[in-house]
Amino acid sequence: MTKVLIMIGKWALALVILLAAFVWMLLAAPFFSDARQKIVADVLTDQLGQDVLVQDDVSVVLGPVSRIRAGGVLIPSENITGTNLAELALLELDLDVLSLLNGRIDLDNITVDGLQVNMLTQDDGATSWTASDRTKSADVPEQTSEEMAEAPKEESGGILGFLRHRTASFTSIGLTVDDQVSGFVFAFDLESLAFDQLDDGNRLGVSGLGTVNNQAFEIEGSYPTGAPFTTQANFGEMKLTFDGNPIPASDGGGFKGTLTLDTGSFGDFLDVIGLDRVLEGSGKMKANLTSQNDVLKVAEFSAVVDLEKGQQIKAEGDVENLLKAQGLDVKLNARFHPEGQPPADADALKDLKLTGFSTHILGDGNGIEFDEFLMTTNAFDQGLDQVGPVSIGRLRRTPEGHLAMEDIHLQAGPREAPYIVAEGNIRNLLQLKQLDLAGKLSAPASLVLKGLGDDVAASFGGVEADFSVDDTKGHLSLNKLDARTVNTDVWALAAHLSLGDVTGLDGIEFDFDLDIADGAHFLGALKLEEIDTGPLELSAAAQGKGKDFATRLGLAAGTSRLEASLETSVAQGRPTIDGRVFSKKLDIEDLRKAISGVVELGKIGDSTKSAEEEQKLGDTEASEPEFQPLVLPEEDDKPTDLVDLEKLFLDTDLTVTIDIEEITGQQGVSSLSSELIAQDGQARLGPVEVTYGGGYFKVAAEMDLVETPELLSVSGATSGWDFGKILDAVGLGIDAHGTLSGQFDVTGNRKSVRTFINSMYGSASISMSKGDVATSLLELAGLGIFPWLFSEEFQQGYTDIVCVVAPVQVNSGKVSFDSIVAETESVQLVAQGQVDWINDTIALRAEPRRVGKPLARSAWPFDVTGKLSEPKFKLDVGGSRSKRTDGADEMPADRKPCVPDLRQLE
């Protein structure tokens, strides 16, 4: 028996030795390296919940708590082929052998060196990690708190769950968070990261030190089991703090707490999140967070960003579930100038600036709606009460470091029938640059004709337009705006507009066509008097690029057509403008009707005036003085105030021609032609030539902007005008005939019409030939006081007028003359004197004599003196005689009519 026992003992010892040798070989011999790697990999896989590979050898220091050392540990991504979730050069950990013999794996005191974690998200949403799904199923009974306390280390839940109840130390850590969906990349380079079990394992302490995106990073955290916890992270000057409390399992689990963020330098904040440092300032944010059952609720959110130039952005509100953008209710206000210091009012489009905006943003997970959106600029306030819903595909960081808002879809106006529908992107949101937007506008006429009644608005249909804008060239460009009228036969509009640079009106292409088939129908649709203007057309076009610009305007009314064009360019650094106004035919009646139609359009809205407004208007009209012909009104606002003519003529070479070949609609046929030329500071208009009903008018104006910029010289001549028709036109109704002609050459100050008249100097002359006048005119004029002058004509009822010549000299409000001559077959009347309209005086003497008898006595000379407004007439009874100082007393054989006979003596 003893021998048997000894034999059994020997075999048992041998077996133990063999088993020990086998265990030793398994743990240390190179032959079993693959087996050791697989064992460690399987244990870590089970603990982490993700596949783990061990590529280098595994060594073990045996003991009750064995120390295991492994190298080349990889955690492959389960979702992205060829990518590792984590790589580490060295892994050391303690394995409790006694727990292992009891069937429970207990790992602790983990040391990791050379760790690289890659948290990657691809464009399609695939991630390099697998989300943990280890919640208890309904058929698995929950553990009691005592059971959980007995086996705290068996709980898993991914890497973080694995580390929750273990002491761990990490050195030389790299963590890359690269989200291709959002575009944000966070590169952590940590010198150390430690997970320490404190207070007998009842509290986890976390500490780390390193950089993130090359900015200093530091984190401290304290997480007691079932008690309030805190986390604080510093990124450069930015400080983030989250103080929270766990929610008991009986209340649904999760946590809640308060998140605060102080950006310090806002530029540093942009650096940390990888955006261009385009803004400087500071910002603060605070919010209450509740995380429970896959819902992250944000309450009492408030944020203020103060930028260095005085701009401020504020936001406040709540979000029911931030993870799905549900229950969004946020008010946003922005001021883009220092408080109390708005920019100056814009005088031009290029000076227009956005000064601020406010909006109430609502979201239900399917999109964002701006319940109220108010923009303010330095030119206008525009409320858009119905902007939305707005949806944003994604908010992301671009490779260039810009914050981009992509796949924006928005609408404005009534939700069931929006006026504007558009979609696009803003690829540099912080600077409002790199935007592109395209859409459609569809608005009923009632939008602008609301005050005229629904029936009026309905007859005018609506307007549709397609548009697109972007700033790909470095400035805002309107690529197209194509508009047209729809659902109406009252008017037809087609327009196209594109602008290479909206603020500078550069690169413009514009075409506009408005057709009104029946002017009376058009006015009637507006409930105005139906004036038969016939068809009306208006067309306009413009093209401009750089300093070259061309425009065209076309007007058509009835049978009349008028075209105008203007081209500008720069030659040798000096702007050049060439223009033309042309018409083959212009009918006065067409113009009259068209103007009447325009006047009628000006009455729109008059019918809506209240009785009180009408009374005020009546009182105003009654108090206004009656219009007085030939009395010049004060010129408060003149068209020339809009253009600096002096600068235009000095800096520009200008040529504009006017050519209207035929003007019809009145007696006779007329035409008009002229030319305006300005070159090197010398400007000349004309001659303006007009022919009408046998009459002719020609006038020219000149300015020397270099030597005498304040002076304007006007000269011209006229002829062929029927004296009788002029008398008829002014309403005298006197039978008279004769052909008038004249000429003038005057210069004056161009400041205003009144100033020009009062300051002008020069000469003028009016003459008439081959005429006659009814004796009733002589009687009306009081010339019956010397009836012998026209006695021979009284019998025939009219007087033949051979000629009238009136040369005058003008000088600053004074007209002087020494040889005004009116001549009949028998009598020559010669007058001389002066009229001063500024001082309201007249001094005139006229002497009638027989034709060819200048030395004979003038029986009835007369004087006109006193005020020009109230002249006094005086006959010089007894007459007077004249003589030549040189003794000449013979009339020449070839006597000239309407030249004073006294001057013709030989």
Show the helix and strand layout.
Layout lengths: L1 H27 L4 H16 L4 E2 L3 E4 L3 E12 L7 E13 H5 L5 E15 L23 H6 L7 H6 L4 E12 L5 E14 L4 E10 L2 E10 L4 E7 L2 E9 L8 E8 L3 H7 L8 E12 L2 E13 L4 E10 L4 E10 L18 E11 L3 E10 L3 E4 L2 E11 L5 E10 L7 E9 L4 E12 L9 H6 L2 E9 L6 E10 L5 E10 L4 E11 L2 H7 L10 E10 L2 E10 L2 E12 L2 E10 L2 E2 H14 L9 H13 L21 H7 L1 E12 L5 E10 L2 E11 L2 E10 L3 E15 H7 L6 E14 L3 H7 L1 E14 H6 L10 H4 L3 E14 L2 E11 L2 E10 L4 E10 L11 E6 L3 E5 L25 H4 L2
Parallel strand pairs: 5-6, 31-33, 32-33
Antiparallel strand pairs: 1-3, 2-3, 3-4, 4-5, 6-7, 7-8, 8-9, 9-10, 10-11, 11-12, 12-13, 13-14, 14-15, 15-16, 16-17, 17-18, 18-19, 18-20, 20-21, 21-22, 22-23, 23-24, 24-25, 25-26, 26-27, 27-28, 28-29, 29-30, 30-31, 33-34, 34-35, 35-36, 36-37, 37-38, 38-39, 39-40, 40-41, 41-42, 42-43, 43-44, ...
Q: Would you kindly provide a written description of the structure presented here, covering whatever features stand out?
A:
With 906 residues, this protein is α+β, with helices and mostly antiparallel strands. It has a 45-stranded mixed beta sheet that branches. The longest helix is centred in the first third of the chain and has 27 residues, at 2-28. It is rod-shaped. The protein starts with a helix and ends with a helix. Mean pLDDT is 76; it is low at 16-26, 132-157, 607-618, 620-643 and 776-791.
